[in-house]
UniProtKB/TrEMBL annotation:
Pfam families: DAO. Residues 7-350 form the FAD dependent oxidoreductase domain. It comes from the Bacteria. It comes from Sinomonas terrae. This is FAD-binding oxidoreductase. InterPro entries: FAD-dep_OxRdtase, FAD/NAD-bd_sf. Keywords: Oxidoreductase. PANTHER family: GLYCINE OXIDASE, SARCOSINE DEHYDROGENASE-RELATED. Transmembrane segments: none annotated.
Length: 371
């Protein structure tokens, strides 16, 4: 445990922010968690949250994602009955069978558990799917899973409270203030004014680059607008996460289904106040695409849909670590926020509490966007 606890503010009430706050408390720091709105009101509240390291990516990114899955495995082992964290595998295909085969061969080459399956064999791997709608060649990854991030945040915030963390919700947009030496010294919000700190972690999803930009730090931001639809409850046996050409689908607590994709993005409209909307027929079309993937093609009804920015750094790789220009200010910004939430919180806390750089974050430093 850190023998000299510091006061650290974490900006962001999503999965990475809350995870970081809890890990910092475990290290002995005094922690204030500041969020613009309510907990999970941003990207974590509308994430497909597929736990995986499928497909092609850098070795360092793959290693980090596998460590992230490992932490979820540990959490799952504590209580496998949690309906908000499950490991039922993943099914992937696109419109080109050759690309599925290439993906499988690449995964096998680095020992990622991967199987080629077809409509006639899929039922022996995972239940609840409509064989008639499946591709002739798909990839099944049995080690993958999913998490409901709002439920994860609810779980973590219990420990946060028990360990004496201070939670400030509905704070409004936060900014980082520096002292005369250029070191992070305070977090300033409309609702709470200036909160003096020894260090700050900026983990507010797609808005992270905007928070650090006034500090003279540029972080590339490629965050698109996306949507997550959650259905009304229905009887289904789906266990796997499905990633297909027209719908991405996963089970969700309460016998509901969560649905995502990107083909509908051109239909999303932003009004003058910054609010997003989408025509209801487009939502119905997405529900139809998801329905045909499920056994019995049940009629799916939307209970809700949420629209907002999906965090993606400019080069697609995670952005983690202390800003060289602003000592004491750390950032956590990544597309894979669900898979990395637990490990990112752990490693950022390591760096803050020890004042040391963790080797697994070395290739993900924010300075790579400078110049």
């Amino acid at each position: 445990m850190n023998q000299n606890p510091r006061h650290v503010a974490v900006i962001g009430g999503g999965a990475i922010g809350v995870s970081t706050a809890v890990h910092l408390l475990r290290s002995g720091a005094d922690v204030t968690l500041v969020t613009e709105g309510e907990l999970a009101s941003g990207a974590s509240g509308r994430s497909l949250s597929w736990l995986n390291s499928a497909g092609s990516r850098s070795r360092e990114y793959h290693a980090l994602r596998m460590a992230g899955i490992d932490r979820y495995r540990s959490l799952f082992a504590q209580d496998p009955s949690r309906e908000w964290l499950q490991f039922g595998g993943g099914v992937y295909w696109d419109n080109d069978a050759a690309s599925a085969v290439a993906r499988h061969e690449y995964e096998v080459s680095h020992a990622y558990d991967s199987h080629l399956v077809g409509p006639e064999s899929i039922a022996s791997f995972t239940p609840g799917l409509n064989a008639a709608a499946l591709a002739e060649t798909s990839v099944f990854n049995p080690g993958e899973g999913w998490v409901s991030l709002p439920h994860l945040i609810e779980h973590l915030i219990v420990e946060f409270t028990q360990r004496g963390g201070t939670l400030k919700t509905n704070a409004g947009a936060a900014r980082v203030e520096v002292d005369d030496d250029g070191r992070a010294a305070a977090v300033v919000t409309p609702a709470f004014g200036a909160i003096a700190v020894d260090a700050v972690v900026v983990a507010c999803g797609p808005h992270t680059p905007d928070v650090v930009a006034p500090l003279g730090v540029h972080i590339g931001n490629a965050s698109p607008v996306s949507m997550l639809v959650v259905t009304e409850p229905l009887d289904h046996d789906v266990r796997a996460v499905l990633n297909t050409p027209r719908a991405a689908v996963r089970p969700n607590p309460g016998q509901t289904i969560a649905i995502d994709h990107d083909w509908y993005e051109e239909h999303i409209v932003r009004d003058a106040s910054g609010q997003y909307s989408i025509p209801e027929p487009v939502v119905e079309e997405l529900l139809g695409e998801a329905s045909r993937l499920l056994k019995g093609t049940p009629r799916l009804k939307a209970n809700s849909w949420k629209i907002g920015l999906k965090p993606i750094p400019g080069d697609g790789e995670p952005v983690f670590g202390e800003l060289e220009k602003v000592p004491g200010c750390y950032v956590a910004f990544t597309h894979s926020g669900a898979t990395l939430a637990l490990i990112a919180g752990e490693l950022i806390s390591y760096e803050v509490s020890r004042g040391e750089r963790h080797p697994m974050l070395e290739t993900f430093r924010p300075e790579r966007f400078e110049g």
